[in-house]
Amino acid sequence: MLDFSTYKRFKTFENKTILAIDFGFKVIGTAFFKPGVDPFPYMGQKIIFKSQLETIETIKQIVADESVDILVLGIPYFIDGSESETTKLIKHFGEHLKSSFKTLEFFEQDETLTTKSAKERMQNSPQFNFKIDFTQIDCLAAVIILEDFIRS
Fold first, then answer.
1. Residue 67: helix, strand or coil by DSSP?
2. Are strands 47-48 and 42-43 parallel, antiparallel or unpaired?
């Protein structure tokens, strides 16, 4: 098990609730971490994407229910760091998200290969019966985004 307390961002965000979002145009994964309280990031609920407005309303409810202080949005880039059309669309969603939560700290986190990493984790984990569980993969990708955020 990783010890996240050694990372700089752990100390910076200690006792603050972080919500990570793996945005997709079908399913959105969420994950949470409260450094100093939680031992590690954990999966939240998945959100079925219907529209940006409805997604933001659902996130508002999650933020209120979980007393979120920080939002982290995963942004997909190509391996070489360049942007795709999807990158631009998700950054645009991020602008809407940021303007909807003006009192929260907002960060973008590179999510390159997080879904691939989530698949590998599932195949190597008894928690997922050593199989890829597509019903949970987006939330596990959000956990990985959050882990990467704390490490960076």
1. coil
2. unpaired
pLDDT tens, position by position, 111-129: 999 999 999 999 999 989 9
* Chain centre distance of CA 82: 20
The amino acid occupying position 152 is: S
Domain topology for 4-151: Nucleotidyltransferase; domain 5 (3.30.420)
Q: Alpha helices of the chain — where are they, by DSSP H?
A: 8-12, 52-66, 85-100, 114-123, 137-151
Give the span between the Cα atoms of 139 and 117, in whole angstroms. Answer: 12
Summarised one tens digit per residue, pLDDT across range 70-91 is 999 999 999 998 999 999 999 9
27-33/18-22 β-pairing? antiparallel
Structure tokens at 1: 């098990």
CA distance 138 to 25: 11
DSSP state at residue 81: S
Strand, helix or coil for residue 89: helix
Domain ranges across the chain: 4-151
